[in-house]
Each structure stands twice: as structure tokens, then as C-alpha cells.
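Subject — a protein and its fold
Fields — amino acid sequence, C-alpha cells
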Amino acid sequence: MKTPAAARTSEATTRERVLAVVVEHGPVTTGAVARVLGLTAAAVRRHLDAMAAEGLVAGREQRPEAGGARGPGRPAKEFVATRRAPGGQDGHGELAVDLLHHLAATTGAAGVRAYAEHRADQLRARYAADVEAAGPGVPARVHALVSALGRDGFAASTRPVDTGTGVAAVQLCQGRCPVQQAAAAFPELCDAETAAFSELLGVGTRRLATLGAGGRVCTTHVPLDPPRSTARPGRPDPPRSTALDPAAQQPPAPPHRGGAAPAPPAGTSTRDTTGHTPSSPEGPRR
């Protein structure tokens, strides 16, 4: 039998686990959290209600899938972590914003872009080894990047999406951002990070939402199929074949010099518009 102290410790641990799932996978429903942790929906709901009252999580009605109709009954509620959740801010948000404003005032927009590129270069250098070790396949590279981001506290995860075009894709989601407050004022930070993701993964990624702009999570669209080309890597496309193009097989016409008209192509009539055949420059043949 648990002592009161042990029960309180267990309760706190369960609460932390529930919050961690919401931070990493939000927006997420009570049922989904319960399945991840192996708890009852009632137990999870009790923790979520308590954290919502404290402002650590926020809930809203779950949106129906694109093109789908809302089912009967009360719609499920999905939860996301708020900025007040532990780990949501690094404690230096206001300082970072103040420094970037000073940088913009003294060096202009170019200075802010240069700093954003500097951060992106650091991100590429930090995660390049992990991503390269995963091999050339985009899905494996995405998984490696998500794992690396997770180790650094970004609460990263992926979700498959149906693009409706037949191209497989995932959404790379980040539930935490260490520069969220700065990114809200300077979106160049997000743009540079997205470009770094594209270079690391080898495909063109697209940022759909950011925490800095008020999104529930930072969401990046990642196509899993790289662009296809008929050319081999490092080699240009082969020249167009002329085997079936008679015109392409004709030798080039000799240069036109001295005012003399070039000879007409074989099979072309030399009769002029009066119906007479022009005389040869050497005179009529007998």
C-alpha cells in the first residue's frame, strides 16, 4: 500500500508524463494521451483539466479531417501546451528580442538576416552527422533529424499527411522552440531554420506554422520523394536524339558569298514565276 507521500510523488510523475505527451504530440486528444501512456482516459482527463485550470495546457474542439464530416455526439477536445508549460520558454526571451532589435537598429535588416543564417549554420553543423548516417533515403533522414531535435528539447515528432497528389509527405512538428519570443518579432529565424532543414534532408521543405506566429506547434511540410531527374548525379541530361529527324541529319549549308544565291535543295523546281527556266551562267547547253 502506498504511503500518502508516495501517492503524491506518483501523481506528480503521471502529471509530468501527461504534459510531456501534450508538448511533444499536441494537439492531442485525451484518448490519444491515454493510449501513449497506458492510462485510463479518466485519469488523463483529470490531469488535463487541472493543468488547463493552471494555464499550462489549452483545449479546444477537435477539427474534423479535411473533407470529412463531423461525427455524431459531442466532439472530442484536443490539447496543446501553452507558453507557461515547463520548457516552453528559455527565460531569456525578452533579452533576445531586445538584442535583435538593437542589431536591426544598428546594422539594418541585413544584420538580422546574417544572424539568422549564423544560427542556421550552427543547426546544420550540429545535426549533419546524424542525418548523413541515416543514408540517402528521405524518410530515414527525417527520422534522424527528429531524434536529434528531440534530444535538444524541441519536442519533435512527425505525422503522415495525405497531400491528395499521390506524393508521400510528413509534417515535422516541434512542440517547443528556444527562440519562440524572438521568432515572433523576427521571422527570419524561422525562414533560415526551414532552409537548413531542406539542405539536411535533401528536399524542399515548407514551413506551414510556427509557435512564434501563434501556431499550436511549429509545422514543416516534408515531401518524402526527392525531385526526379533523367540525368545522373553530376552529369547533364543526354542530348536529344536526331535518328528520326531528317532535318537534323542535313549537312549545314555552305556560306553565302559573293552575292551568288545558294543552290536550291534537291528536288526543288527552278522554274520562275513566269513559267520559264532560268539560263545557266555558262549559257545554254547544246
Observations:
- The radius of gyration is 33 Å.
- The beta strands are 28-29, 57-61, 77-81, 156-161, 169-174, 206-209, 218-223.
- The first helix runs from residue 4 to 25.
